[in-house]
UniProtKB/TrEMBL annotation:
Keywords for the protein's UniProt record, in alphabetical order: Disulfide bond, Leucine-rich repeat, Membrane, Repeat, Signal, Transmembrane, Transmembrane helix
Alphabetical list of PANTHER family matching this protein: IG(IMMUNOGLOBULIN) AND LRR(LEUCINE RICH REPEAT) DOMAINS, IMMUNOGLOBULIN SUPERFAMILY MEMBER 10
Protein name per the record: Ig-like domain-containing protein
Highest classification ranks of the organism: Eukaryota, Metazoa, Spiralia, Lophotrochozoa, Mollusca
Pfam families recorded: I-set, LRR_8
Length: 717
């Protein structure tokens, strides 16, 4: 049966945390003595101490004396899993633990008045709301409150008023989307806050300003994507921070500032692409660091240096290929390094470890290692246990030192290889147990072997990085250089312009078209050499220009390609008249802009339009087109009459027609007047001469088809 409580200072090993994330079972050798809070601690019931303490128990409930992890002989009322829809009517002030998990309360109207309670379990009871802010006001002695796996969406200010002695608050696996600033106000003694599994997309530092006593904060399995500066500034006593199972891609450099007492940091199962080496420098007390299941491709030089950690886990990293020179430098307290189940880990640099005097256990099983460098033994003077099984080791000189260790007996061998009977090497596709190979069958030195650390051919776009890491094994240690293009030798002392070469890594930050070509890695020692080549093709870009609507004074262009619209602020549009040797006009693109119209252009003129990619202060031209504007009168949907003779003919025809109409009208009026005598006599005709002229028809003074009226829409024609 699941307990409502868990130990505040429960002991849990590093590997137990890892297993809770990945669902695996590991050896007892992985267990450490460090204290880590379990995300979902299990209850502890001491059945021999169970006994009835009252004869008046609620219907269908049990009343027993029960011991828990941190409590002895608590008088417990257990009403769990009996399909309650409302609170039972209980008023026994002797009760110290009240278990109500797995019921169907939905809305809690009022809690029973049990003023001596230390433990209250309301987990998995479909609770979506507490009807009053004063629900817990009479629970001043309560120390542990379990609201795990309910339907709570909002925590209002003062939601836990009255719980002045609460030490553990479990709100995991609810549906919290709104937590008000003072929701945790009054919890002055809170030490453990569990917010796992709530789908939170952000964390507000103000939540914690009233609970500065918290030492363990659990935020796993939410939807956090970014950790901003000073996010945990209100938690100076925080010792354990669990952020596993989020979507974290970005950690700002001061995100952990102020956490001087943080001992355990779990960042596993996120989307980090770089090890947060700078971000953890503010953690002087850090003891356990877990970075499993992220997207690291390599561990760079001095990524881990001058840290006081005793345990480090870099396992289940699907993209990890190599551990570079001096990756682990000056780690005086490191005793356990977990670096297993990295399915693409090919290579550990011979000088990966420097000033790591106390490392005792090294877990390298279930990787893709071709060799384990012989320098490891001298670099790790106190290492006594190595897990190397399930790696495709090469049957050559690189394993000579391992066979020698396996063959040693008694005190001659300092290093013990765990599960040695599972360590095999691959010789001409024949897998052989190392324990069955005699030392004289394997030479002490051999030519280099380059590892398949990069593809034979790949494509990239202008502005994207080119990263080729040449990895090689051999005894003596091989030296590496690059042959680029037509065979020019490039190495760390003679790098190519715009390229960085370091320990076999050939890196171009921003690819250009002239970076296309052949790249050959050469590894050599006194025994021979080996090469590995790649053909790189740099494409013009992921954005092209196509034309939209064009008129005599403007051109509309459309951006077409696979580039995200959110990244368009790295691009610019340049345009000018093609025939002129003049400067370009510049349009700075913005996010989500996928088309634009260039106005104020000249009619019947060719323009050159280009899209460019900005790299720092340099601009790379990706694509150009030439577009010609239309003639001045050539507008879509409009016709211009330009024949002067036609215009004059129309004017004359209209004038003649109007003249004839006027003549006929006057003639008809004159005829009517002659057919009768005016009744008032001839002298009454004089007032007719005073009729206002404005009442008469005036033919237009401007021709109908003037220059203004010569544009006739097709829809009207």
């Amino acid at each position: 049966m699941r307990s409502p409580v868990y130990s505040l200072l429960g002991v849990l090993s590093l590997i137990t945390i890892i297993n809770s994330v990945h669902g695996i079972t590991s050896n007892r050798d992985n267990i450490t003595s460090n204290q880590v809070l379990a995300p979902n601690p299990q209850p502890i019931r001491d059945n021999p101490l169970r006994s009835p303490w009252t004869t008046h128990c609620a219907i269908n409930c049990t009343c027993d004396v029960v011991s828990y992890a941190n409590y002895k002989n608590l008088k417990t009322i257990n009403c769990s899993n009996i399909n309650l829809v409302s609170m039972p009517n209980i008023s026994n002030n002797l009760a110290q633990a009240f278990l109500l998990s797995k019921n169907k309360f939905k809305i809690v109207q009022e809690l029973p008045h049990l003023k001596n309670l230390k433990i209250l379990d309301l987990s998995s009871s479909q609770i979506s709301k507490f009807n009053s802010h004063w629900q817990f006001f009479l629970y001043g002695l309560l120390e542990e409150l379990n609201l795990h796996n309910n339907l709570l969406k909002t925590l209002q200010d003062g939601a836990f008023t009255g719980l002045k002695n609460l030490r553990v608050l479990d709100l995991s696996y609810n549906r919290l989307h709104l937590i008000e600033k003072d929701a945790f106000g009054g919890l002055n003694n809170l030490q453990v806050l569990n917010l796992d599994g709530n789908g939170l997309t952000s964390v507000n530092p103000d939540w914690f300003q009233r609970i500065k006593s918290v030492s363990e904060l659990l935020l796993s399995k939410n939807d956090l994507r970014k950790l901003t500066d000073d996010l945990f500034r209100e938690l100076p006593l925080l010792s354990t921070l669990n952020l596993t199972g989020n979507q974290i891609r970005v950690i700002e450099v001061n995100a952990f500032r102020g956490l001087s007492k943080l001992c355990v940091l779990n960042l596993s199962n996120n989307r980090l692409t770089n090890i947060p080496s700078q971000e953890i420098r503010f953690l002087p007390s850090l003891d356990i660091l877990i970075l499993d299941a992220n997207s690291f491709e390599t561990v760079k030089s001095e990524e881990f240096h001058h840290l006081n950690i005793s345990e480090l886990s870099l396992s289940f990293l699907p993209l990890l290929k190599s551990i570079q020179n001096n990756s682990f430098h000056h780690l005086p307290k490191l005793t356990i390094l977990q670096m297993h189940d990295n399915k693409n880990l090919l290579f550990i640099h011979p000088n990966a470890f420097s000033q790591v005097p106390n490392l005792q256990k090294l877990y390298l099983h279930n990787n893709k290692l071709w060799a384990l460098p012989y320098t490891l033994k001298a670099s790790l003077p106190n290492c006594t246990n190595i897990h190397l099984y399930h790696n495709p080791l090469r049957c050559d000189c690189n394993i000579h030192w391992i066979i020698k260790e396996l063959a040693s007996t008694g005190n001659k061998s300092r290093i013990q290889f765990h599960d040695a009977n599972k360590i095999i090497c691959d010789f001409s596709n024949n897998k052989t147990l190392l324990s069955e190979i005699r030392m004289n069958e394997i030479p002490e030195s051999c030519p280099p072997t380059t590892l398949p650390s990069f593809p034979k051919h790949f494509e990239t776009s202008i502005g994207e990085p080119i990263s080729l890491e040449c990895l090689a094994i051999g005894v003596p240690l091989p030296q590496i250089h690059w042959l680029v293009g037509k065979g020019a030798k490039k190495n760390q002392t003679n790098p190519e312009k715009q390229a960085e070469i370091n320990n076999g890594l050939y890196y171009v930050r921003f690819a250009r078209l002239n970076n296309s070509g052949s790249y050959k890695c050469v590894a050599e020692n006194i025994k021979g050499n080996d090469t590995r080549s790649a053909s790189v093709e740099v494409l013009s870009g992921r954005l092209n220009i196509i034309t939209g609507k064009t008129s005599n004074t403007y051109i509309t262009i459309i951006l077409n390609g696979s580039e995200s619209l959110m990244l368009l602020d790295k691009y610019q549009i340049h345009y000018k008249e093609s025939v002129k040797d003049s400067e370009y006009n510049v349009i700075y693109l913005k996010s989500r802009m996928h088309r634009c119209t260039i106005t104020g252009l000249k009619p019947h003129t060719m323009y050159e339009l280009c899209i460019l990619y900005q790299i720092n202060s340099e601009l790379l031209k990706l694509h150009c087109i030439n577009v010609t504007t239309k003639l001045e009168g050539d507008k879509s949907g409009i016709t211009k009459i330009v024949d002067v003779k036609v215009v004059m003919g129309i004017i004359v025809a209209i004038s003649v027609t109007l003249t004839v109409i006027c003549f006929i009208a006057v003639a008809k009026r004159f005829r009517k007047r002659k057919e009768y005598e005016e009744p008032f006599g001839h002298d009454r005709m004089e007032p007719l001469s005073h009729i206002p002229l404005e009442n008469l028809y005036h033919p237009p003074s401007t021709p109908i088809c003037s220059s203004r009226t010569s544009l006739i829409s097709h829809s009207q024609a």
